[in-house]
Structure formats: C-alpha cells, structure tokens
Specification:
The chain is 37% helix and 26% strand. The protein contains 13 helices and 22 strands. Bound molecules: flavin-adenine dinucleotide (FAD).
C-alpha cells in the first residue's frame, strides 16, 4: 500500500497545464506535489489567445477574472491579404447562445501562471517546489517514483500517479518511451512587440488578424499594453540578427510604414512543430499539454489545449481517487485528448499556417475565396467560428468513449 507521504499526485512542470491540473486536483481534496525546474514563476511571452471553452473552465475554477482583468476582450478577428485588406471577418458575438464568453481574450499566459501560483499558495494540500528539475519517473503496481535534480542534490519523490506537464522537451514523456510523431516547419516565427498604434497604419484592423502574403506574411495581436507582430524567419538569417534592433525596426517600417517603437522586452524567435505523442498514458504515468502535443501557434490553441487536458485529466483522476471509476478512465483521457490534438487542433493550425504563408498564386486565391464564401454565409460562418473557437471540437472529443 502507498505510504501517507506518497498518497498524492506528482505534477512535473508549472506552466498553464501543470498549474491548472494542480488547482483542479486540489479543489477535489487530492494532495499534489508540483515540481518546477525554474526558480520562480516566470514564462516567455508565448500564448496570448484564450478561447471561449478555456474561459469557461477558468470560470469554474474561479480564475477567469485573472484573464479578463489583465487581458483585452476581442470579439472580432480577421483573415486579411496584405495588399487587398480584409478577406474574411468573424464576429464571435454570434456564439452568444453557445457560450458565456463569446469572444477571444488576448492576455499573456504568464499573467495566468502568476495568478494560479498565488491561488495555489492558499491550498494546504498543494506543495510547490521550485528549482526541482524532473529527470524521469518509474512505476510499479502501487505508485510512481519521480527523480529530480534539486538544490539538495538528486532526490526521489513518491506518489500514486505522475502527470507530466513539463513542456515540449518533457522528461516524463521520455520515461513513457513514446515518440512525438509529426513534423517541424522549415521556417521559424519571429515576434516583435510595438507600442505604436497599428490601427493608425491599418484603420480597419481587428484585435486579431492573420495577414497573408507570399513574401512577408504577418499575424497581429492587440494586447492591453502593446501590439504583438509575428513574421516568418528569413532564409539564412541567424536568430540573433532576426531579433536585433536594426532588423526589427526595418521590418516593422517596411510593413507598416512606421517604426521606432519596438519593445525591447518582447523580441523572440521560435521553431514551430506539428507533433503529437503516440500515447498519453502508460499505467500511472500520464502526460498533457506541450509534453503531449505541440502545434503551430496560428490559431492560438496550444495553451488552450493544455488547459483542456489538465481539466479532463483532473476530472478523471478525481473519479479514480474517490473510487467512482477504474484506472481505465485514463485511457479515455488519452482517446479524447489525443483525438482533439490530431483531428482538430492539428488540422486547424495547419490550415491557418497555410492560409497566411502560401506562395502559389492559384492556391492563395483558392483559400482566400473559400474564406470569403464562409464569411459571407451566416450558417457557414457560425459553424466555422464554433470550430475555430474550439467549442465544436471539444464537445465532440468529450463524448468519445
Ligand atoms: C510564439 C508562440 C505563441 C503562442 N501563442 C499561443 C496562443 O496564443 N494560444 C495558445 O493557446 N497557445 C499558444 N502557444 C502555445 C503555448 O505557449 C503552449 O502550448 C503552452 O505554454 C503549453 O503549456 P504547458 O504548461 O503544457 O507547457 P509550458 O508552458 O512549456 O510549461 C512547462 C513548464 O514545465 C517546466 N519544466 C520544463 N522541464 C521541466 C523539468 N524537467 N522538470 C520540472 N519542470 C520542468 C517549465 O519551466 C515550465 O514552467 C504559443 C506558443 C508560441 C511558441
């Protein structure tokens, strides 16, 4: 039998996935040990888009105000052509009968992380350890043993289950021995922040816009304090040059006819993948979030999926913990969440990436015409928004047996 100290779920990684899993478990009186490799709650400037189902889950967990108060509510988003302007516009208020939150919110994921850490500090059944880098996990019939590099040297931590939410390079995924199948895009994405008002250069721009162009595509996101602009990397340009002052300024000026205000703290370059793990669970070891699937950020779905994984996992773990369900519920977690990653998020983010970056003129025209036709038809537009807001895909995945 498991000893008292090991009567807990160990979570590797304190990003959005691990923190939401911790909160969801703690609220069901399940003890949690969360091991995070960094020395404090911090994150890169990555996810900003929160979709309606994620806002609903955060609402249930008492966390939605952290995102609504620090974020920008964005009901309308666009597909655009760099030279011809708006191709298709989607107003999510049409989803008002389907969700309490008929909009996207643009908010830095690190704001959510900070709020979650502050909330978890009030739970006596949650033990968060920073500067604990998980090295791997082993299991037997009774529980798991998680190895971690800590300020006191290598240590082991026992638990009944381990949830690997330790990001794209997950040590827990390696312990599972599963492959992260898929592909990596040749081009990277380069992000700049700017404090100049993009709407002065593009008066009809929405708070989220995907702008297609064969030579210089762009994604624009309006955050409360700045605009985030994403371009493709350029062939042969080293990463440090791509994010340098001169190059950032020159690209912004060429695109908007205006520069001089790029934000020093926000310049990044990222490699982009479409990869899903072969399995999300073996026995008592389970993975979720970027540890289990990574996708192009076009559509803003990675963090949202991680939150959905965490809620789904914690719900099933709660049933198992209370003796209301068997361990095979965790296989259902895998079926539901892997289906969403492979059949929904992957398809949508590939479509969005192709829409903005397509170079072939005939293909570009075809995908723009398709989008125009969707936006012009109320039924098609509604269906499209149900999908791109992750509502339809999540509903379909959640009823899979
Ligand atoms: C440019 C860009 C833009 C994006 N925009 C969006 C968006 O708008 N919307 C969206 O939904 N998604 C977006 N994403 C994706 C999103 O950022 C990720 O999907 C999300 O961060 C995944 O959360 P996670 O908690 O699973 O992993 P992470 O956020 O990577 O968190 C993992 C945590 O584990 C810790 N860790 C790592 N290794 C170990 C270890 N061995 N031991 C202990 N701890 C460890 C890390 O320090 C980190 O705190 C974007 C990604 C990029 C790159």
């Amino acid at each position: 039998m498991a000893s008292k100290e090991s009567d807990r779920v160990v979570i590797a990684g304190g990003g959005p996935t691990g923190l939401i899993a911790a909160l969801s478990l703690a609220r069901q009186d399940i003890p949690v040990l969360l091991l995070e490799s960094q020395d404090s709650p911090k994150d890169h400037r990555r996810a900003t888009t929160f979709h309606p189902p994620t806002l609903e889950y955060l609402d249930e967990l008492g966390m939605v105000d952290a995102v609504l108060n620090d974020g920008r509510i964005t009901p309308v988003w666009q597909f655009r052509d760099r030279h011809e302007g708006v191709v298709a516009e989607f107003d999510l208020s049409a989803l008002k009968d389907e969700t309490k939150f008929p909009y996207r919110v643009q908010c830095e994921q690190m704001e959510l992380n900070r709020a979650l850490h502050a909330t978890l500090a009030d739970f006596p059944n949650v033990d968060v350890r920073f500067s604990h880098e998980v090295l791997g996990a082993e299991q037997d019939a009774d529980g798991v043993t998680v190895r971690a590099d800590t300020p006191d040297g290598e240590q082991t931590f026992a638990g009944r289950y381990v949830f690997g939410a330790d990001g794209a390079r997950s040590s827990i995924r390696r312990s599972l021995g599963v492959r992260l199948g898929g592909f990596t895009y040749d081009e990277k994405v380069v992000q700049y922040g700017t404090t100049f008002d993009v709407s002065e250069a593009m008066p009809d721009i929405a708070g989220v816009a995907y702008i297609s162009d064969p030579d210089e595509w762009c994604v624009i996101l309006h955050l409360p304090e700045y605009w985030r602009v994403t371009f493709s990397s350029r062939e042969g340009e080293p990463d440090d040059v791509a994010v340098s002052d001169d190059v950032a300024e020159a690209r912004m000026k060429a695109f908007f006819g205006k520069g001089g205000a790029t934000v020093e703290l926000h310049r990044n370059i990222w490699t982009i993948h479409q990869r899903v793990a072969e399995d999300f669970r073996k026995g008592r070891i389970i993975i979720g979030g970027d540890a289990a699937h990574i996708n192009s950020p076009m559509g803003g779905m990675g963090m949202n999926s991680g939150v959905h994984d965490a809620v789904n996992f914690a719900d099933k773990m709660g049933q198992i913990w209370r003796g209301e369900g068997e361990e095979d519920l965790l296989d259902r977690y895998t079926r539901q969440r892997r289906h969403m990653a492979l059949e929904d998020v992957r398809q949508q983010t590939i479509r969005n990436t192709k829409f903005i970056a397509e170079k072939d003129p005939a293909e570009r025209r075809k995908s723009q015409d398709e989008m125009r036709a969707v936006a012009a038809n109320a039924d098609k537009s509604f269906k499209f928004m149900m999908g791109s807001s992750m509502i339809a895909g999540l509903r379909a995945a959640n009823v899979l047996e």
